[in-house]
Model the fold of this input.
Amino acid sequence: MLEALKTCLIVDDSKMIRRVATRILRDLKFEPSEAGDGREAISLCRSSMPDAILLDWNMPVMDGLSFLKALRKEPGGDDPVVVFCTAERDVTKIAEALEAGADEYVMKPFDSDIIESKFMEAGLV
Amino acid sequence: MSGALSLRPSYYMALKRLTLELAGVNLGKDHTFLIETRLSALARKEGFENLGDMIHELFSRGQTRLAIHVVSALLERANRFFDDRKGFELLGDQLLPALHRRYRGKKIKILSYGCSSGQEVYSTAFLVDRMAHVFPEMEIEITGVDYPSWALEQAKSGRFTHFEVQRGLPIRHLIEYFDRDGEDWVVKKTIRDCVNFTDHNLLSNTDHLGTYQIVMFRGRMRQFSPPAIVRVLRSLSSMVSPHGYLLLGTNEGIGKVNYGFNSVPVAPGCFLKLSDKVRPSEVEDEMDLANPYEKMLLQEKVVKKSLKEITSGARKEPVEAPKQKGKPAA
Done:
């Protein structure tokens, strides 16, 4: 019997980034879905909580940090492994993301090797 | 991209042979791509207009320093922090606690043989730092050695790109052990002060390096030619103190000859040193010691001689592959 693929929600306002991440995650045997901002992502999580979330920081409507804080208050919101994926490289920002409940952190630009490495760190691969 | 190669075919053969002669490493079938990509980057660092100019300089003037840097660049590995993670788990969970019990109050010395740009050395230093709360009195000295190269200079500086620090390094380690400096990340001075790096030809005499309780030589075995492996394993054996450990990659072994180690591994790729001596006959049975690598010390005259011989071949086109079995053609 085939094992169900793990799901990963990609939250990023850049269509290009979502497309690249989708391809990488499919190669890693994930079933990806997409959201363009934090509010859309919360809505998707309420209907079906993913196993993992690849999360941008700076987005319109609701940014990544606000989304993460909101997510962790949702029923089952502690379950998804959240990997920030952002151009923010400041150590205080990274620490802030971890404090808010992020499990790992990818600094853009990234490649497939980095995503795989970070997902391994987070116990997803 | 045209895919056109920029060097004369004879130069590829010459570079392949130079690497085999100086480092005992066979570059394999796909060496042309490797040479193009790695040496083009080195040519830029060395200030040459293009790869062709650098190779011409190498073979026309026979520069020893450039020859070593060329070979080192060809041998560089794709490094990542905490590579082959099971080895680090073994180090932290079993080897260091066992050695700490045995050498209580004494310094434990660890050697990373072939450390390249230093990720293995720094990963070990991070691991040791995280064990400090369990073994506060444990004192560790970590040394990395490799051919003189740009990679080793990077190791000494502790400076890594944002791509490099994202390969194998947990984010919490990054913010704890690194300072951001522009686009790069630099290992904090407190960690850099705990490690040291030394230039050393991996095939040359290791007497001056001393002995260690743990020698790490992970993921490099398949790169070397069989005679070079014998030579390296003999050197490693002489550097591991009795009751110390040789840590290879988890998929690597020491072959039929035990080199003074227990032939039954402590864990995959990990061998306990039993005695201080290796019976010469054991090694001689496996490999003829009269091979050219025995004499291959990276000294000025040896490099000069190799370059001269290879250059004479490289200038004649086309250059045929050496036909003599086990010994490169002069």
